[in-house]
Design goal:
By secondary structure, the chain is an all-alpha fold. The chain has one domain: Orthogonal Bundle (ABC transporter involved in vitamin B12 uptake, BtuC). About 75% of the residues lie in helices and about 5% in strands. The protein is built from twelve helices and two strands. It has a two-stranded antiparallel sheet. A hairpin with a 2-residue loop joins strand 1 and strand 2. Helix 1 packs across helix 10 and helix 2 packs across helix 8. The longest helix has about 30 residues. About 45% of the residues are buried.
Length: about 300
């Protein structure tokens, strides 16, 4: 069993990853409540944006600022276009159909990335931030500013989204649509405009998450595409509703997954942590719901 000193760097990494999972989960929750779509292409869109940023820096010779802008713009445009084209056609379909449709987009993007940025022949790429080499120490734990940004952005997006939904007209419209879309439309709310904003916001967050994960984890299309699983697990634990619960669940998933890595006996199973935590939480939640219903019926 590793010592606490061995775990410390992984704790910092886990908090940073948890923050990125949190912003991903919050974006997915907001989109789901507005449209009923669980956006499984979130990771693939962010991954392709990150690879475009790498392309812009290393091939096109652009600055990092322009590269990041291209990545976020790509994710926002692709997600918004998907929502505008397929959103209306999926509106009345079963939730499973909606989810599989976004999985199809993820697989298409994954195939395109494999063709353009092939990983065969040992090709490796990396995307780094200027903040990687700057940081501070807490006791014996070294923290760089990219890790601080990863965690901080998760907190900022969670709090900011909550304030947006509660105190703005557009946010109120999104909450109303989550309750009943037909009645909301009858009240004169511009439903299509609200939907476009929801899709665009989710795409924007996908771009940000893709850039951060490309630095914190690896700039690999497959890895980044399927890291969305951790965000999905957090969303499931929150039952597609609470941004705060999504944030807490994402942090726990990030920390547990990361801190399981140095334990040799379970290193190969560390990536199962999101599934295990989601299943355990859902079992507890369903058990409490059953108990409360039985008490209510007495």
């Amino acid at each position: 069993m590793p010592s606490w000193t061995d775990f410390q760097p992984f704790l910092v990494t886990g908090l940073a990853l948890g923050g990125v999972y949190a912003l991903s989960g919050v974006g997915m929750v907001v989109l789901f409540r507005a449209t009923g779509v669980l956006y499984l292409a979130f990771g693939a869109v962010g991954a392709m944006g990150a690879l475009l940023a790498w392309q812009a820096i290393n091939v096109w010779g652009l600055s990092q600022g322009w590269a990041w802008l291209i990545a976020v713009a790509f994710s926002t445009v692709v997600t918004t276009a998907y929502g505008m084209i397929f959103g209306p056609r999926l509106a009345d379909r079963d939730p499973l159909v909606k989810m599989v449709a976004t999985l199809g987009l993820a697989l298409i993007l994954l195939g395109v990335m494999d063709i353009i940025w092939t990983s065969s022949g040992g090709a490796t790429r990396s995307l780094t931030f200027p903040t990687d080499n700057k940081g501070f120490a807490i006791s014996s734990i070294q923290v760089n500013y990219t890790q601080v940004i990863g965690f901080g952005v998760g907190v900022l997006i969670t709090v900011g989204t909550g304030l947006f939904l509660r105190f703005t007209k557009l946010g109120t419209a999104m909450r109303a649509m989550a309750a009943d879309r037909e009645i909301t439309a009858m009240l004169g709310v511009p439903v299509n405009r609200v939907l476009i904003v929801a899709w665009a916001g989710c795409g924007f967050l996908a771009g940000v998450a893709g850039l951060l994960l490309a630095d914190l984890v690896a700039l690999d299309a497959t890895t980044l595409t399927f890291l969305v699983i951790s965000a999905v697990a957090a969303v499931l634990i929150a039952r597609m509703q609470s941004n705060v619960v999504t944030f807490v669940a994402a942090i726990v998933i990030g920390v547990v997954t990361s801190m399981a890595t140095p334990i040799n006996a379970i290193t190969n199973y560390a990536q199962m942590a999101p599934f295990v935590l989601a299943i355990a939480a859902l079992l507890v939640i369903s058990g409490r719901t059953r108990i409360s219903l039985e008490r209510g019926g007495m």
